[in-house]
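thought: fold this chain, then report.
action: predict
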Amino acid sequence: MTADALKKNILIVCTSPALGGLELYAEREWRNLTQHPEHNCHFALSTSGKLMQRLKQQHDLKQLPIHANKFLPLLAAVKMARYIDRHNINVIHMHWGNDLHLCALAKILSKTKPTLIYSRHMRITRPKKDLFHRFFYRQVNAVLAVSRCVLDDAHLFLPLKKSQTQLLHPGVAAPTAVTNNCHAHLPKYQSGSGFYIGMFGRIEHGKGQHLLIDAVASLLRDGTRVTAYIVGHPMDNAYFSSLKKRVMEENLNDNIVFMDFVDNPGQILPCFDLITLLTYCETFGLILAEAMRANVCVIGTNAGGVPDIIDDEKNGLLIEAGDANMLALAIKRLHDNPELKNRLADAGKTKADLYFNEEIHFSKLRDIIAQL
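observation:
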């Protein structure tokens, strides 16, 4: 038997049109698996998705362009089934919930009948045990939940045995190519002075950017000077306009900086004294793990998957979701007590290097693939 015959042929599927943590994770998986000689890695992408545009210059990408329709996935499923058989795909690994119909139908229509793994990155909000969902989930061999709350959702709402579900926290890479010139990357940054807060993520109400603006306004009124950077794509233009209006009304132009999406946040994370994640119910919170690995102190909301990452008062601070006053008090506490800030940051790095290490994570994923 040849070496190629012994390889696992894996098809990563992510036809989401967006470009966020879920989509970037799928890309990182592809990059990791292609580095290992025991895998032949293929990627199914939406023809109109931002991930396709991002990866179109990758000449080593074995790709299956998909023009999929959530409600009429049959034609795309036929195309995928033929691709599966032509390339002898052993494993399909999907990441976006809307791809379930596509992947399940492709598995049914294929001759190869590959193992189907579903990494669940989002919360599950309602039961999926009706006949319609049971038909599709019957094709799923394993669900990998990114946090304990998602695992609990899977046990409660999905028509699967508990043995078919398991927890697999995402991992992040150690920071590389860290900038030594923060003021060149961050407007209004002055090296060696000030207290700088970063907030990364899509700009929409559920992410809670307004809470950071309210907290900064409160701190300035009390004489605590801080500068906050809100980094990310506006997904809700009306909400983004309301944020900018609030900044103008409170005369915060020197203290609130809006920046577009940053492709490599790890490069600038060490510029900040503090990273916040204020989502009302974040499924996990990759930016917190990235900040912790970069030895930066973190504040997150006590909801969703964030408590998997932050142990309150041990390696970061947890606040209640939606509470700008509690956020302001937590920021002031760290601002006034650098020793506490540094102690929490050091403990955070220790935990993140151990539990949210990208290499360890993908090693576990490769083991799961091999076992299945």
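thought: worth noting. The two ends are 21 Å apart (CA to CA).
final: tokens above.
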